[in-house]
Amino acid sequence: MSEPCDLTATEARNLIGQKMLSPVELLDSCINRIELINPHLGAVVSTDFDRARDIAKKQEKSVVDGHPLEPLHGLPLGVKDLLETQGLRTTFGSQIYTDHVPKQDSYTVSKLRRSGANIFCKTNTPEFGAGANTKNSVFGATGNPFDPDRTCGGSSGGSAVAIAANMMPLATGSDSGGSLRVPAAINGIVAHRSTPGLVPSPDRLVGYSNYGVEGPMGRNVQDMSMMLSVMVEYHKNDPLAFPRNAENYCEIEPVDLRSVRVGFSEDLGFCPVDNGIRDLFRERMNYIEPEFLSAQWSNPNLLKVQEVNWILRCQFFMAQHKIHYENHKEKLGPNIISNYEAAMEMPAEKIAWAHREQTLIYRRMQQFFDDIDILICPTVGVPPFSKDQWYPNKVNGKKMENYIEWFSLTWGLTIPGNPITAIPCGYEPSGTPFGLQVVGRYHADQFVIGVAKALEDLFDSKDDLRRPVPDIGQFDIL
User: Fold this and answer.
1) pTM above 0.85, yes or no
2) Are 379 and 439 in contact (CB under 8 A)?
3) How many CB atoms lie within 10 A of CB 335?
4) Is 285 left (phi over 0), alpha (psi -120 to 50) or beta?
5) Three-state SS annotation for the chain
6) Which of 161, 232, 260, 371 is the most buried (most CB within 10 A)?
7) Taking every pair of C-alpha atoms in the chain, what is the biggest distance, in angstroms?
8) For the chain, what is the mean pLDDT?
């Protein structure tokens, strides 16, 4: 290790428990890294360093005094700027909330604090999390740590960049159409979009929806899973929540790939995927295919998922942003406005059709897993584009119809709602990280993460497949 901030979350937590690393030392190292490189990347947007230092000193004393320690004790943690943090500015990436300082934490933030995390900053997000490029009118665009002029993905882009650049070991994210998975892939880290209800969201306005799943982000599968273990629980105010044993996620064991029937899909049967990404995916899947019990190339039946996703997304935005549109339209960006106005034009018959069709898509997806145990597909279908663009205009020469079409590899899987772990798999041809989605049966989160851990172990043994690490030294000369 060169600095304490370069430790993984698991390494740092073990050293803290062994009295070999002070929470104060770790926090100061993370703050120093933020001050060094965040001006070049724009991942961290608001800070609470003084309070965090006071907390770290108390955490250090608890270690010295031999008190029982919480699972995340002493680990600095960043919070995506969509979750309210008591006493720490929360803008949602919107000009409407530029000066908003919440009086209390959101449920997830309070749970992480109780689990020992030292919440010390907020990370950038597009306005209200709308879109897969982390750019807003309050803080500007967040750059990719492998190429600061290009996008880091979104909407949990600030969190992903901060973890990849070792500004912090862990951070929160959330995922409607791919907001955990897209930035995880583009920045070379790990995230998990859980079966809806595994991680409760009792604060959200639309409870009966598999949009808006909150989740963990870390540098490797074990770090991510350790954070997930403190987020998993039953909560009566989330109608999708269900009882589950959180201890299953504390120490994830790799699944024996020789017992796994795998399916490969390069585009899920409908997604725009750059030809270079297709070729790379085929090459890498051909390499890992012999590791499995059996393998087949097969697409799930996601017929009509594009229309269903757009209708349900617009309906979700109308429920979330009616007050913003009616009272502050002049302060809203184009993504929110386009979704909201599209929703206003939708007849009830069309919305009812989309809900019914989503159920059919869900059932067909579960039947798809009768013949396989795991589906693997790319996470992002294009190399990162300029961070100043809202989205790529074309993929393989085909014009994109709207700002979400280019990341359909992720939202296409949101609609059925199966659990997905996003893991890095080396670099894509233009020099930024390439990522995979590991998808499993509904409620089989532990198994999915175990397969992801086995793949991570496999990739670590091969130079061109292991997790990419950005060159922090480049920021000394920028």
Assistant:
1) yes
2) no
3) 22
4) alpha
5) CCCHHHCCHHHHHHHHHCCCCCHHHHHHHHHHHHHHHHHHHCCEEEECHHHHHHHHHHHHHHHHCCCCCCCCCCCEEEEECCCCECCECCCCCCHHHCCCCCCCCCHHHHHHHHCCCEEEEEECCCHHHCCCCCEECCCEECEECCEEEEECCCCCHHHHHHHHCCCCCEEEEEECCCCCHHHHHHHCCEEEECCCCCCCCCCCCCCCCCCCEEEEEECCHHHHHHHHHHHCCCCCCCCCCCCCCHHHHCCCCCCCHHHCEEEECCCCCCCCCCHHHHHHHHHHHHHHHHHCCEEEECCCCCCCHHHHHHHHHHHHHHHHHHHHHHHHHHHCCHHHHHHHHHHHCCCHHHHHHHHHHHHHHHHHHHHHCCCCCEEEEECCCCCCCECCCCCCCEECCEECCCCCHHHHHHHHHHCCCCCEEEEEEEECCCCCEEEEEEECCCCCHHHHHHHHHHHHHHHHCCCCCCCCCCCHHHHHCC
6) 161
7) 64
8) 97
| Dihedral, CA of residue 387, residue 392, residue 395 and residue 399, to nearest 10 | -170
The token pair that represents 296 in the structure block: 């087949």
Note whether 267 and 412 are within 8 A (CB).
Answer: no
Measured CA to CA, the distance from residue 47 to residue 88 in angstroms comes to: 7
Query: What are the pLDDT digits (tens) for 150-190?
Result: 999 999 999 999 999 999 999 999 999 999 999 999 999 99
Q: Angle 305-328/334-344 helices, nearest 10 degrees?
A: 110
Per-residue model confidence as pLDDT tens digits over 407-432: 999 999 999 999 999 999 999 999 99
pLDDT digits (tens, 9 = 90+) for 40-51: 999 999 999 999
User: Among residues of the chain, what percentage have pLDDT more than 90?
Assistant: 96
Contact (CB, 8 A) for 40 and 478: yes
Residue count of the chain, please give it: 478
Which residues fall within 8 angstroms of residue 66, CB to CB, at 6 or more apart?
none
End-to-end CA separation in angstroms for the chain: 24
| Nearest-angstrom CA–CA distance, 375 and 299 | 9
Residue 108 CB contacts under 8 Å (≥ 6 apart), including other chains? 83, 172, 199, 201, 203, 214, 231
